[in-house]
Amino acid sequence: MMSGNYTSIDNQNISGSVPAAVPDPGHLTVKFEDSNLQTFPPSGAHGKIASGARPPRDADDTFSKPVSGSDESQQSGWLRVFSVSSYKSYFDVDTSDVLERIKDSLLPFSGTFNEKTSNSPDLYGPFWICTTLIFVAAAIGTFVTYVAHKIKSKDWEYDINVVQWSAGLFYGYVTIVPLVLYVILKYFSAPSGLVQLFCLYGYSLFVFIPALCLSIVPIEIFRWVVAGVAGVMSATFVAVNLRAHIVSAGERWFLIVAGIFLLQLALSVVLKLYLFTITV
């Protein structure tokens, strides 16, 4: 008797607890809210590394305007320089982008490099170009010295300082020169972006990679020609691309462009004198 009552109660409870229609879980839509942990760049941009990762237009705004609603908003001004996430967008390039910019650097008279990279300057290409130059310069310079000593049957010793000197030259040049030029352009109220200058100068050094490889030919006049051609191409590339921006600096724009051109030529002369002037 009690068993029957329990059965009846259980059946009623079960029938009352089962809904009339259960929706198919496969049709449920789950909506996730956007993460508020993104610190840089602004969430409205789009890039290749991740959603919202596109290089900003100008470095001036990069480190001065905190993104509202983010963790970085508590850090203002140049404190954001020390945040790794602030630099992610400057490496948001693929192989085709880098190759296209390298090709533009080998066409110095086109003057379209700044226009193409105005919205997406990168530091990936300049970093690897400088790094490649360091090892190419050290390796080829050492090899040329070795061959010169062996031809004259003299003892040869490896100079480790070549690597250190090359690293200081290329990394220092591509960092200090754009910084100084940025300050000068700011003084004359000429439009400029710091990262844009880093990008321009970094790619301007690519022409020295094949030039260093050609300098392995043991003919002094040929080495001078190679160094001269590479220097003129690199200097023209930088000067032509900056001319349109520097013209707004006033009457002294020509002096600035001429200084940029001559400084780039001086780099090629230094490379020739230090790496490929062999004394045995």
From TrEMBL:
Signal peptide: none annotated. The keyword Oxidoreductase does not apply. Residues 112-270 form the Yip1 domain. It is found in: Golgi apparatus membrane; Membrane. One of its GO terms (biological process) is vesicle-mediated transport. GO terms for cellular component: Golgi membrane. Residues 1-16 have a biased composition (Polar residues). Residues 1-22, 43-73 are annotated as: Disordered. Its main location: Golgi. Keywords: Membrane, Transmembrane, Transmembrane helix. The keyword Ribonucleoprotein does not apply. It is a multi-pass membrane protein. It comes from the Eukaryota. GO terms for molecular function: small GTPase binding. The chain crosses the membrane at residues 126-148, 169-188, 194-217, 224-247, 253-275. Belongs to the YIP1 family. This is Protein YIP. It comes from Prunus yedoensis var. nudiflora.
